[in-house]
Amino acid sequence: MSNEIQHHPLFASIKELIEQSKQQIAVSVNATMTALYWQIGSTIKNEVLKNSRAEYGQLIVHTLSTQLEKDYEKGWSEKQLRHCVQFATVFEDEQIVSALRRQLSWTHLKALIFIEAPLKREFYIEMRKLEKRSVPLITRTHSVIAL
Question: For residue range 26-49, what is the model confidence (pLDDT) as tens digits?
């Protein structure tokens, strides 16, 4: 009986609904986390690092990271916080971030924030949207073009 239900159109239809919902949830979670990373980076950049000495800023980011990891465990290393700041520095306009976070994963955006030339960055954003390029492919292509 269970083998018969796997081939029934009702089963296939319900399975497709479940898979679509799972995909929508993943996109929604990624978009929410990406917005959070931008907000954290923007807050650190504007409230902590603006007009302060580099050593002071590093100390604050280190202390913030230590406390966040104590409260939330993994995911809030100094490196992650610096990625958040870099993200907010490269993409200063929250409206642009709002559009990008629905189209690109945090992993893609994180790879793009280290491309210094804005035109190259825009090129990779468009390539990712059109061709669904993977992060390793973007990184390899950027290395070849940079030569």
Answer: 989 999 999 999 999 999 988 877
| Boundaries of domain holding 24 | 2-114
Tokens of 100: 């990008």
Decide if 137 is inside a domain.
no
Q: Is residue 100 part of a domain?
A: yes
**Is 107 domain-assigned?**
yes
- Between CA 108 and CA 118 the distance in angstroms is 15
Report how far apart, in Å, the C-alpha atoms of 15 and of each of 3, 18, 23, 27, 87 are: 15, 5, 12, 19, 37
Asked whether 85 and 44 are in contact (CB, 8 A), the reply is yes
Residue 123 three-state SS? helix
**124 within domain boundaries:** no
pLDDT digits (tens, 9 = 90+) for 85-137: 999 999 999 998 998 888 888 988 998 899 888 899 888 888 877 776 555 55
Cβ-based neighbours of 64, under 8 Å, separated by 6 or more: 44, 48, 81
Considering its fold, how many domains does the chain have in total? 1
State the average pLDDT over residues 62-89.
93
